[in-house]
Design a protein that fits this description.
Radius of gyration: 19 Å
Strand content: 25-35%
Number of helices: 7
Shape: globular
Helix content: 25-40%
Largest sheet: 6 strands, mixed
CATH class of the largest domain: Alpha Beta
Distance between the termini: 40 Å
Order of helices and strands: EEEHEEEHHHEHEHEEH
Number of strands: 10
Structural class: alpha/beta
CATH superfamily of the largest domain: P-loop containing nucleotide triphosphate hydrolases
CATH topology of the largest domain: Rossmann fold
Strand order of the largest sheet: 6-7-8-3-9-10
Length: 257
């Protein structure tokens, strides 16, 4: 199974003419990969994710999963947003079950599946709690469990840790690596945080701005994946290369404006 993005373009009509947000995006993501798309504001990251999620349609080109063209939302893609989007009146268990309930899955089956993924994210003991009783990191883990409960082929993540403080964010990074290694799920995440992308992913697509284009694809090979790797020279080399790309692309966008 793989996620394929082929010659994808996205334009929006404005009173000043067509606004080109994405231009000729090509990506191939293999099963079990953790991929990050990194770019500054104006690189079309969120627009790209909406095309993959089926929440919007490309102007040209296509997105396919396992050989099937994406034409709308579907259970083969789980979505995790920056803000937790939990229902405050529902318990953790009920939030985790919600997607399956919409799909008409019988109560016993959805309870079992949701309970399993709450155990995977380490929240079994909070199943009866309400979201207001949880920390930010715990809320995001509930959102991840809810996305996983439908057992999607691809987990899509829209800057999921952007609202967290630095210590919680680092904890969530290590949690995500452990989750990815245990489940072998395919993950596609967008972020503007270069260090986050280098630490988490095995490949990075660096996006330019106005319009969003793939400027470079970088394979990440680190000696180990714990917080201490951020002190390693290889980590610094990847980070510096991406920062320089983003800086240069930003200057080009300003010059072209």
């Amino acid at each position: 199974m793989y996620l394929q993005i082929t010659h994808l373009h996205k334009h929006f009509n404005t009173k000043n003419g067509a606004l080109v947000v994405l231009k000729d995006i090509n990506m191939t993501i293999e099963q079990g990969e953790f991929i990050c798309a990194v770019g500054a504001s104006g690189s079309g990251k969120s627009t790209l994710l909406r095309q993959i999620a089926g929440l919007d349609t490309p102007t040209l080109g296509e997105v396919s999963i396992d050989g099937q063209c994406v034409t709308g939302p579907g259970p083969d893609r789980g979505m995790v947003f920056q803000h937790y989007t939990l229902y405050p009146w529902m318990t953790v268990q009920e939030n985790a079950e919600f997607g399956l309930k919409l799909q008409g899955v019988p109560k016993k089956q959805r309870r079992e599946q949701a309970s399993y993924y709450l155990s995977v994210v380490g929240l079994t003991e909070f199943a009866k709690s309400l979201p207001k009783e949880l920390s930010g990191g715990m809320k995001q883990r509930v959102a991840i469990a809810r996305a996983l409960t439908s057992e999607p082929k691809v987990l899509l993540m829209d800057e999921p840790f952007g609202a967290l403080d630095i210590h919680t964010k680092e904890s969530m990074h290590e949690f995500m690596l452990d989750l990815w290694q245990r489940t072998n799920i395919t993950i596609f995440m967008i972020t503007h945080d270069v260090e986050e992308a280098v630490f988490l992913s095995n490949r990075i697509y660096a996006l330019g701005t106005r319009p969003g284009t793939v400027r470079k694809e970088i394979s990440i090979k680190l000696p180990h994946r714990t917080h201490t790797v951020k002190r390693h020279s290889t980590f610094h080399d990847y980070r510096d290369e991406l920062m320089e790309l983003m800086r240069r692309h930003g200057q080009e966008a300003i010059a072209a404006a």
